[in-house]
Write a structure and sequence with these properties.
The protein is mainly alpha-helical and 169 residues long. It contains nine helices and two strands. The radius of gyration is 22 Å and the shape is elongated.
């Protein structure tokens, strides 16, 4: 099947009884990607929700990449910056989440360069100090365990956590 004939193929979205031509789907995905950076996986899921056929999906994705609406390196960088600055995630969690989105190792490494080491250390201490002050446990071992579990769930490296915990009395 040739791509030029795909513009006539429609897809049905049965949840809304809406069908999309390739051009309509392309326009919808351009808005979706312009709103915030997306990874390929998110765009593919959106196209599946729209019930687009594989050939149309491929054509739309190629167009989005060519027109720079879809850029995984940019997505990974903004994801890492945002999750670190807003949610205060550690590098381990950011890496895990990017891998789940099938981002390449190269793009993950590029994204991690967006996080300044000094800012990372400061944020780690802020998160650890804040959590420690909120733990109302009197037993020091239980306090340390709760703090460790929290910091691990936020995605901080175990070496950082254990260094911090060793300084507590």
């Amino acid at each position: 099947m040739h791509f030029r004939h795909l513009s006539y193929i429609c897809a049905m979205d049965f949840s809304q009884n809406k069908s999309y031509s390739v051009q309509e789907a392309k326009n919808k995905l351009m808005q979706y990607c312009a709103y915030q950076d997306r990874c390929h996986q998110e765009v593919e899921e959106k196209l599946k929700e729209m019930r687009m056929i594989p050939e149309a999906c491929e054509q739309i994705i190629i167009y989005l990449i060519h027109e720079n609406f879809l850029n995984e390196e940019r997505f990974a960088q903004s994801f890492a910056r945002g999750k670190f600055r807003i949610k205060k995630w550690g590098r381990t969690r950011i890496i895990r989440e990017l891998k789940q989105r099938q981002i390449s190792k190269y793009n993950i490494n590029t994204a991690l360069k967006e996080i300044d080491d000094i800012e990372y250390a400061k944020t780690f201490l802020e998160v650890a100090d804040k959590k420690l002050s909120s733990i109302k446990e009197s037993n020091i071992l239980k306090r340390k365990r709760k703090l460790r579990d929290h910091l691990l769930s936020k995605g901080y490296e175990s070496t950082l956590i254990y260094d911090y915990l060793s300084q507590l009395s």
